[in-house]
Amino acid sequence: MIDQEPFLSVGIYEHETETRGVLNGRFVLPDGTALTGEFCVRPSQGRLVLLRKDGRELARGLEIRLVPEGNATFTLRGVTIGINFHWERKEDQTFEGGLRLLLNSEGTITAVNDAGVEQYLKSVISSEMSAEAPIELLRAHAITSRSWLVAMLERQKRFKNVGGPARRGRESEEEIVRWYDREDHKLYDVCADDHCQRYQGITKIISKAAEEAVRNTRGVFLIHGGEICDARYSKSCGGRSDVFGSAWEDVSVPYLATVSDATVEHPLISSEAVAERWVDSSPVAYCNTTDGSILRQVLPSFDQETTDFYRWKVTYTQEDLSALLKKRSGIDFGEVHQLQPLQRGPSGRIVRLRIVGSRRTIVVGKELEIRRWLSPSHLYSSAFVVRTEEGPQGIPARFTLQGAGWGHGVGFCQIGAAVMAAKGFQAETIVKHYFRGADLKKLY
Questions:
Q1: pTM for the whole thing?
Q2: I need a labelling partner for 80 at 20 to 30 A (CA). Which of 174, 192, 296, 359 fits?
Q3: Helix (H) and strand (E) counts for the chain?
């Protein structure tokens, strides 16, 4: 375990053909040259070239490193957020810490922000949560995010798996099972998007409450069995959280057990009949809320575009679904005859789904791959039941997916935690509700 604050490198983006930005204050190059103001970086003759606004060249190399002096920050233009999600868009973003620009083998640019864990967390909490969120929610989220991040860094160091594949699984002619863990990046520790943790520097106003939450929990981690917890989280569990093996490799993680997100014990989803009753109902749960004042506190503005997170419905025509599956999976199923759940986790999330078509029949898993195949971006979750409307010759003309929750549903439920905080629960109680058997310990 650790005894001092770690530092990490955050990949802001990769594969850009040009970088434009502004140095808000004084930055220094390795040769001692100081600069400020607008800049541009582009590839040229196998090197990166750093240019001032007037076009004068300031530096050239495979890597350009800019170190801030004092409280200087930098702004990058047109950073893509929500990559491959339904809220994807570009924003100008501002960051504290150092900036490194790296030339990729294919001649594009990677931008990396070097920052301390606590500085990074201030941004994550402000990016994941509204500045008006309750302080106990911010404290709980700071503990959760810090634990996940440092557990990942420690695991990466222990197994030296930098640059390993993000996609893992097993594949055959009959079955494709894939899961996607945190991207194991070659050039930095963690990405800045939702695939790792949402990190937007100081672009969003970092509230005094967020700063206080990180400061008051500095160095505090979830601990289980003498190790820092791999503390996963998602937007809404849908009433019951799921287990680690439903989303990732088939291992049991004791502190990521299934939890009823309520003061009553909801049933485990043990059959298709129970799954149907579950998604057709709206059982009481912390994350079952339509309270706009709470949701505005919890969700940044673009996440508020999603209002049907607890129970939702998507309908596809036969033509739309067959075309979507072909585009998203690369497999021509022909006419889709059946979507048949074969295995569910305890929250109702489908782990293995059989797709029966006139040309191909394949089993797909795990939950994220199912969501990828059945949506132009990502289906809200894989906790759904399938209802069909019959067409000519008994072939379904329409498929309706009726589902529950938003995200993988493992560990910390962000909306549920927000409601708990609004009800007066303390941060320690909140995290121990979602991470059963874990303890809190200050390590630095």
A1: 0.87
A2: 296
A3: 10, 24
